[in-house]
Design brief:
Structural class: alpha+beta
Strand order of the largest sheet: 1-2
Helix content: 25-40%
Distance between the termini: 34 Å
Order of helices and strands: HHEE
Shape: elongated
Length: about 55
């Protein structure tokens, strides 16, 4: 969060990212192994989300 849009407006950029991915989740079964990179508004990779198996 120390460069680009995340540095300029951390809360606003995180809100944008979460809104985008919230809407995009319908394209995933949300099963273990599903996931994707997360990009900021400049299309730079800023993270990744994934669904993992629950440890038993």
């Amino acid at each position: 969060m120390d460069e680009g849009a995340l540095a300029e407006d951390p809360a606003g950029e995180l809100q944008r990212i979460l809104r985008y991915w919230g809407g995009n989740l319908k394209h995933y079964a949300l099963r273990p192994g599903d996931g994707s990179e997360i990009y900021d508004s400049a299309y730079r990779e800023v993270g990744r989300w994934s669904v993992e198996d629950q440890a038993r």
